[in-house]
TrEMBL record:
Belongs to the synaptophysin/synaptobrevin family. It comes from Desmophyllum pertusum. It is a multi-pass membrane protein. It is found in: Membrane. This is MARVEL domain-containing protein. The keyword Transmembrane applies. It holds the Pfam family MARVEL.
Amino acid sequence: MNKKPNIEILKEPKGFIKGIELVICIFAFATVAGFVGHFEFTITCHVTPASSVTSRSAKGDFFYPFDSIKLYTAASEKNLCANETMASATVDTLSINYKSEAEYFVFTGVVAMLFVIVALVYYVLFEDRAKDATSTDVGLFSFPVVDFIFTIISGHLLVHKCHCMGIRLVWSERCY
């Protein structure tokens, strides 16, 4: 451990980029974990060909972990459709299957944030001592190399998951 922290490392590209990565990880994690969505639509139905059009509004709320939607339908004085026996306000819970994708993004964000914190602590507190202890040859398992490899792997996994999720949304296919 250095006798005093080397804050100057934060002015160099590897320290500055780690600071940017930390801010991005925090915002990405907070965006997914704190997300609440809302939608509204109107249902229109003809009871019989000669009758007037009736409509009812529906509203839905969904939130992290994206495993269900609460659907609220408003009451209508007229029957909405011919097969309805009672017109009343209802609250239904619809199951959706996006929980694993949301949890994956949160997991990736938390792991990346923890690694960035470890990397910043290493660069600020231990970097100079490690440079003095090694020769000019960079070893395969030196921390900057491990940092680089971890960043490449985590970036690849995140891009691959975004690509697979896009395919799933567009083509209704599963990507493993």
